[in-house]
Amino acid sequence: MTMNNLPNSSSPFSKILSTFTVATNIACYHKIHTPMLLLFWLVSSSCYSEILVVMHASAKIDQLSYNQVKMLYLGKNKKLSDDTVANIVDHHVNNPLRDEFYRKATHKSTAKSVRIWARYMFSGKGKPPTVAKNDAEVIEILERFPHSSIGYIKRENLSDKLKIVHVLP
Question: Given a cut of 60, is residue 42 above it in pLDDT?
Fold first, then answer.
């Protein structure tokens, strides 16, 4: 069949052919791209796991809301729910967990959080969080100041010395 002999676009055959072509293109797209998207999702989700906001197991606080965590880490609230002044423990600026935490907990970038804390510090309204190099150092600080310290770690570093007060998925 030559191009001149193809049925016109209003014939039933051309509508069926057109529908079949679209369906075939969609099926091919999904056969090729769906496994790639699934693989990408699995790899990216394994890189970023839940972030746990934790306190020492002996702390009086059992749970904090998302808003409480956000206000503490943005410096807008300095006290925990039991009126204890919070010792906020943060990761180093170059730690990727810090980027993920601030994105999930405050919807702000690490750079923005640094500017916020610098403004508080220079205005005399507050002191910046205690900085830890990694999850192990966060846990060490929480053990040193068990009743007032709050920090965040990856789930795989959770120990029985800690209590989860909030989970960021």
Answer: no
DSSP 7: P
List beta partners, residue 51.
Answer: 154, 168
**Per-residue pLDDT averaged across 52-74, rounded?**
96
CA-CA distance, 33 to 30, in Å (whole number)?
5
Q: What's the distance, CA 168 to chain centroid?
A: 6
Q: What is the pTM of this model?
A: 0.71
Residue 122 in this model has a pLDDT that exceeds 80: yes
**Superfamily covering domain 51-168:** Periplasmic binding protein-like II (3.40.190.10)
- DSSP E strand stretches across the chain: 51-56, 87-91, 130-132, 149-154, 162-168
Give the domain ranges of the chain. 3-47, 51-168
Residues 61-90: b if buried by 16+ CB within 10 A, e if exposed: beebeeebbbbbbbbeeeebeeebebbbbb
Rounded to whole angstroms, the Cα distance separating 36 from 38 reads 5
Q: How many whole angstroms separate alpha carbon 62 and alpha carbon 150?
A: 12
At 48, the pLDDT band (50, 70, 90 cuts) reads low
For residue 151, the SS3 value is strand
Average pLDDT of every residue of the chain: 82
